[in-house]
Design brief:
Blueprint (H helix, E strand, L loop, with lengths): L1 E6 L2 E6 L9 H18 L10 E6 L3 E3 L4 H4 L3 H20 L4 E5 L2 E3 L1 H7 L3 E5 L5 E2 L2 H4 L5 H10 L3 H8 L7 H6 L5 E3 L2 H16 L5 H11 L1 H12 L6
Parallel strand pairs: 2-3, 3-5, 4-6, 5-7, 6-8, 7-9
Antiparallel strand pairs: 1-2
């Protein structure tokens, strides 16, 4: 499902296998378990952590093609279980005590793109793949926490419109031009290499990971508040 490798103080989490890496409870739990391993490995006291960075990437044609709809749509309870787990995964990334970089090696659609954009930085290969928010095409509503996340991560209203209200499939170069992702690279290998260089550069700043995470949580407080509301069931939305 996923592997975790450590190169110095850079952790590389890779979604494995040749498939679409669709998000189902098994894969999400595997990713969250890896994040917990990272958190445990770097935390030295209640107030400090070893300077580190996370790179998330994937094998094959897809970074992630979103929800495992063939599994989820068999019952409303299954669909809500996946939604809940994705919310918790996003909250885990927001609270992780280190910079995070997504190295998108192929198609990133719907919840797969949400996973990628939940990282601090998003790098993507330009020779294959696109980003795509399919909710308009498949008639799913957007949750409040996701709208808040994209408000913070994508500054251009026109870019958010094209992504969410046109359901455009965007290549890396188009996404860079619109300010949706950070950079484009010529292959999957070059994308991961660039992500590792970025991660190593961020580690060299020797920031306190807990301070970094708290600032990120403050910046994304509305996202976390909406996730908490959804997870308690006080104001359920798709």
């Amino acid at each position: 499902m996923c592997t975790l490798e450590r190169k110095g103080n850079v952790f590389i989490l890779t979604l494995t296998g040749p498939g679409e890496h669709r998000l189902n409870p098994t894969l999400i739990d595997s990713i969250r378990s890896a994040l917990n391993q990272i958190r445990t490995a770097v935390t030295t006291t209640a107030t400090s952590s070893s300077p580190s960075a996370l790179i998330t990437t994937a094998h094959g044609k897809f970074f992630s093609n979103g929800y495992d709809l063939s599994w989820a749509k068999s019952s409303e309870s299954r669909l809500e279980l996946i939604r809940s787990k994705v919310r918790s995964l996003v909250a885990d990334l927001i609270s992780l005590p280190m910079p995070t970089v997504a190295a998108v090696s192929g198609h990133a659609s719907a919840a797969g793109f949400i996973l990628a954009r939940s990282h601090d930085y998003l790098l993507m290969r330009r020779d294959r793949g696109f980003i795509y928010m399919s909710e308009l095409d498949i008639e799913l509503l957007l949750p409040a926490w996701l709208v808040a996340l994209f408000d913070r991560k994508i500054s251009s209203p026109a870019a958010r419109r094209d992504l969410l209200l046109r359901a455009d499939k965007m290549t890396a170069d188009v996404a860079v031009a619109k300010g949706i992702i950070d950079s484009a690279h010529d292959s999957a290998e070059e994308t991961v290499e660039a992500a590792v260089r970025l991660g190593e550069g961020l580690v060299s700043r020797k920031w306190n990971g807990h301070v970094y995470a708290q600032i990120r949580k403050d910046l994304l407080s509305e996202v976390l508040d909406d996730i908490r509301v959804n997870n308690t069931g006080s104001r359920a939305r798709l």
